[in-house]
Design brief:
By secondary structure, the chain is mainly alpha-helical. Helices cover 66% and strands 4% of the residues. It has 5 helices and 2 strands. The chain has a two-stranded antiparallel ribbon with strand order 1-2. The longest helix is centred in the C-terminal third of the chain and has 29 residues. The protein is globular.
């Protein structure tokens, strides 16, 4: 017997404030794409990256969105761009991109299978890897700048 539950992809599972930088950037770009298309997603990326990085990341995101649009099992549910909550679909998508970017291919393929038909899993994962690597590089640059700005010997608790 199945239990009657409303487990939609919009169900809040986390807060944006607690997300790691890579996941927050993925979710921001996804929300921008969902609400305003490629232009809004590109604006989100430009706010966090150099122009060249944003353009390269946007090309990968277009590939990712193209595969999702053609082979998705259902549309990904997204919260509004300024919403402090992170929905289940957003968290899953961010984890998928992170796993793909950081070389956890089997995990990324498994997560891709939740989003698209079987024939599109590999293509989606490859596009996510390219997209995630651009975002990861941008977050590393920001982390390095933060570390350089912090005085030596500062204890963070």
């Amino acid at each position: 017997m199945k239990h009657a539950r409303d487990l939609s992809g919009e169900l809040p599972v986390a807060a944006m404030q607690g997300m790691e930088p890579l996941a927050a950037l993925v979710i921001g770009a996804l929300r921008g794409w969902n609400r305003g298309g490629a232009g809004a997603a590109l604006a989100t990326l430009r706010a966090q990256m150099t122009e060249g990085q944003a353009a390269a990341a946007m090309a990968a995101m277009c590939d990712l969105a193209g595969i999702l649009g053609a082979a998705r099992r259902r549309p990904l549910a997204c919260h509004a761009p300024e919403c402090p909550c992170v929905g289940a679909d957003e968290a899953t998508f961010a984890r998928f991109v992170r796993e793909a970017a950081l070389g956890e291919r089997e995990e990324a393929l498994l997560l891709a299978s939740l989003m698209v038909d079987g024939l599109a899993i590999t293509g989606l994962t490859d596009a996510a890897q390219r997209f995630g690597l651009h975002l990861y590089r941008a977050t590393l640059r920001d982390a390095a700048a933060f570390a350089a700005a912090r005085p030596a010997g500062t204890t963070l608790h």
